[in-house]
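hey so i finaly got around to running the thing on Alpha/beta hydrolase from Zoogloea dura. pasting the sequence first so u can double check i didnt mess up the copy paste, my clipboard has been acting weird all day
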Amino acid sequence: MPIRNFKLYAHPAATPAGSRPPLLFVHGAYTHALCWMPNFVPYFNARGFDCYTVDLSGHGQSAARASLHGFGLADYAVDLAEAVASLPALPILVGHSMGSLVVQRYLASGQAAGLALLSPVPPTGTGGSAARLALTRPEFFAELPRVTSGHPTQRTLEVMAEVYFSPEMSLDAVLACLPMIQDESEQAVAEMATLPFHPVGRRPDIPALVMGGREDAVFPPSMLFFTALSWRARQVVVDGAGHMLMLDPQWEEAARALADWADSVRG
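ok and heres what it spat out for the 3d tokens, dont ask me to read them lol
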């Protein structure tokens, strides 16, 4: 049998609430399924949601880590299709950052009960973000390899905090996130930069939510409008939060808004 390149994790609620769809969380670039575990999974389990997380191909505990740089967004969408097919019911898909693109790529031919896009990559791709960071935080590109290799300095943590997290996030809290960080596929990174040249495909008429942080230095909240418009989605901006909504000190506000919306979605 071929190697399954992704890894799916089940996190059932102790007391499931009604017949609501399960939640399937899809991580973003430079991280893996562990990013959902400190806050979001326990919170949603307590609200009665069955949860699933996934390590996309080459990420976390998935197979084929050595082949990471050969995987692209289409491969991740295939991972997601297989993960969805293995679930007992169509899920609400929750994609963060790059994961928002994976979710949308999957939905070009797949199905879901609903979708929530957190800190989504804008339709224009990552080129504008990279240019803005090069001007405003030029150290970021020098420090990123240190953090993905697991050898950050004090300055590395400071720069990562400035770019990815809320201004209220302590450096000790950033340090605790290091096990969640890894390298990212060069192919996927290139595809995100050239996103406008890739056809989007169909957008099914399903409930949709778009959420971002007021202090997101990667994709500013002004960019949420364009993603929300394309999905006719409800838009939420979390005050004080940065790019990593599930890990920032404001995570509970983000989780509550997501759960309140998800309560209205039926499979």
